[in-house]
């Protein structure tokens, strides 16, 4: 072994005092105590202090980052005016087998009120109640009529002139879906707002705004 190797081995070997302190602190054997000295930074690995990597360079990001996802589409309007209807894209909910409007549908009817007030060309509206084929025809006819009149009362109570509204139930006579399926029956239980009179000249003015 040459002089350089001898010096390296001497300098990398922990002093007897440090070795003894490590052995007493850990309660371990001599080889494990030596390993502990190495981990604690006094053995041959750490004798030169903290090791740093030389020549390190920041990594450059190549290309463009991905584009952010598009914003979600806005929800469809709940109340829309067409040529001859005020279309509601959400059902008016009633208590089961009753004509009592449930509170969760009040905001929808409030939008109907606001829409009628905004579109001054609408002069008369026929509110129609419709039912599914469940139950007797007579019961469904009366229930759909009471529900149509309950909706009319709500609109009048919230500022719509009673003279521009009519309400009538049609029972099961005007289905829009198959009554043989639960989904079809659900669609058939509905309230519609048909525009039966309007000022076309005023409608043109409103459309131009």
Short overview:
This protein is of the alpha+beta class and 209 residues long. It has helices at 3-12, 16-26, 30-39, 106-118, 137-157, 182-188, 200-208; strands spanning 79-81, 85-88, 122-130, 165-169, 190-198.
Description of the molecule:
This protein has 209 residues and is α+β, with helices and mostly antiparallel strands. The chain has 7 helices and 5 strands; from the N terminus they run αααββαβαβαβα. It has helices at 3-12, 16-26, 30-39, 106-118, 137-157, 182-188, 200-208, and strands spanning 79-81, 85-88, 122-130, 165-169, 190-198. A 5-stranded mixed beta sheet has the order 1-2-5-3-4. Strand 1 and strand 2 (85-88) form a beta hairpin. Helix 2 (16-26) crosses helix 3 (30-39). The protein is extended and about 85 Å long. The termini are far apart.
Largest sheet: 5 strands, mixed
Q: From the helix content, strand content and strand pairing, which structural class follows?
A: alpha+beta
Strand line-up in the sheet with most strands? 1-2-5-3-4
| Run of helices and strands | HHHEEHEHEHEH
Which percent band covers the strand fraction? 5-15%
Task: Sum up the overall morphology in one term.
Answer: extended
Q: Gyration radius, to the nearest Å?
A: 42 Å
SSE order and pairing:
Layout: H1 3-12, H2 16-26, H3 30-39, E1 79-81, E2 85-88, H4 106-118, E3 122-130, H5 137-157, E4 165-169, H6 182-188, E5 190-198, H7 200-208
Helix pairs in contact: 2-3
Q: Which features does this protein show?
A:
about 210 residues, disordered N terminus, 5-stranded mixed β-sheet, alpha+beta, single chain
């Amino acid at each position: 072994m040459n002089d350089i190797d001898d010096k390296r081995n001497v300098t990398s070997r922990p002093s007897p005092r440090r070795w003894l302190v490590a052995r007493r602190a850990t309660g371990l054997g001599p080889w494990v105590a030596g390993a502990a000295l190495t981990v604690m930074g006094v053995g041959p690995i750490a004798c030169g202090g903290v090791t740093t990597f030389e020549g390190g360079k920041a990594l450059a990001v190549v290309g463009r980052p991905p584009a952010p996802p598009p914003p979600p589409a806005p929800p469809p309007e709940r109340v829309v005016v067409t040529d001859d209807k005020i279309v509601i894209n959400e059902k008016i909910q009633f208590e089961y087998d009753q004509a009592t409007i449930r509170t969760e549908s009040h905001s929808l009817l409030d939008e109907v009120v606001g829409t009628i007030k905004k579109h001054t060309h609408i002069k008369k509206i026929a509110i129609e109640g419709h039912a599914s084929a469940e139950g007797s025809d007579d019961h469904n006819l009366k229930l759909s009529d009471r529900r149509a009149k309950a909706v009319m009362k709500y609109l009048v109570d919230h500022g719509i002139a009673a003279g521009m509204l009519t309400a009538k139930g049609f029972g099961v006579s005007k289905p829009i879906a198959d009554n043989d399926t639960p989904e079809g029956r659900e669609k058939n239980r509905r309230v519609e707002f048909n525009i039966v009179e309007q000022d076309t000249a005023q409608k043109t003015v409103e459309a131009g705004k």
